[in-house]
Design brief:
The protein is 0% helix and 68% strand. The protein is mainly beta.
């Protein structure tokens, strides 16, 4: 279903949503699929989240689950992801500044990543750069513990 705004707090639920303007969600053990999302604030545990298209922003805390974003629209502005034990997969990227802080994780930023700084120490990694182009106002911030990050 298409909704302008949705707020939910749930456990053990399955959501299959169409076009969503604003999503505020807290949950555990959920499966969430959104066809098109403008803006979201999501805090979930043990949940799989799939967003087919993101047009504005996403702020997310996720643990013991997974996040897949299949396509970022040219209107995309920002994404802040904090994850533990949850892989993050971002596809259909647009030009954006990328800041990744990770611990015990593998990071694949793809061939079109312009790396500015990268440091590794023991099990930690810090990467700052740009996806596709440095001429952008969009930004992606990811902090990951025990969850791989893929951007293609």
């Amino acid at each position: 279903d298409d909704v302008k705004s949705m707020t939910s707090s749930s456990k053990y639920d399955h959501y299959k949503l169409g076009e969503v303007g604003s999503l505020t969600m807290t949950g555990a053990y959920d499966d969430v699929q959104v066809s098109s999302l403008s803006s979201g604030i999501v805090n979930v545990k043990y949940s799989g989240v799939e967003i087919l298209s993101l047009s504005n922003s996403l702020n997310m805390d996720i643990s013991y689950g997974s996040l897949v974003v299949s396509n970022l629209k040219t209107s995309f502005k920002n994404m802040n992801i904090n994850t533990s034990y949850a892989p993050i997969k971002l596809y259909g990227m647009v030009a954006s500044k990328v800041v990744i802080e990770g611990k015990y994780c593998d990071v694949n930023t793809g061939a079109d990543f312009i790396q500015k700084t990268k440091s590794s120490k023991e099990s930690s990694i810090s990467i700052i750069g740009y996806k596709i182009s440095e001429r952008t106002n969009a930004q992606i911030n990811i902090t990951s513990k025990y969850g791989d990050v893929i951007m293609k």
